[in-house]
Fold:
Amino acid sequence: MTSAVSARRVFAVVPAAGRGARFDPTAQGSPKQYAPLLGASVIEWSLRALLQEPRIERVVVVVAADDVRWPALAAAIDEKSAPGSASKIVSAVGGASRQESVLSGLRALRIEARPDDWMLVHDAARPCLESADVRALIEALDGGAAGAVLAAPIVDTVKRESGGLVSETVDRTGLWRALTPQVFALGELEHALADAARLGITVTDEAQAMERLGVRAQLVQGSPFNIKVTRVEDLAVASQILRAVRESTR
Structure:
């Protein structure tokens, strides 16, 4: 019997066209995805688990039109991950916002993907993604979910701020931190993002775009160490996480 996952193929989109303005104001235009991290770049680590997952057929990396670093790096990643074989990575040109870049990536995959194929979207600045979480996310789709979101439950006490002061303590029951990857069907996700753009609505992740259309994604608990590199200080934290993972697998 053919499973839902094998019948509906899996692709990945990695938006990497951002400038990372909050990352390091002294970086002279160097985006955070190219910051060095344990002998590689942030984006190389972010792609690692996607390229290692055999069920992901293609990964489209969406970069800025003037990105001069990516072509050489893509060739090096291909040679390292699958020497002598066809490239698993393709490239597309992104837009001014994350949602525009994801849309560009989806449209680049129209050539080989069907509207009901799964599109897994992962941030280029999340280098600590674990292969086990990618597998769990894909396997969750086998149960008939309309989509799935990797997430971590909030364990800290949450405060709401007003004017620099605590205004209230928020009940954390049922609250999760949305991570990436997030996965939805190509046709539905493209429609959701295009509809938000048409109405001038900014969405911060794919799940928010799908929520507007009434699609409720399944939450898949992932590692809380799947951090996003936002500021330069985050690189030290990511280094510690990756070192710990490396030690645990020896």
Summary: The radius of gyration is 18 Å. The longest helix spans residues 234-248. DSSP finds eight helices and eleven strands in the chain. Residues 1-5 have pLDDT under 50 and may be disordered.
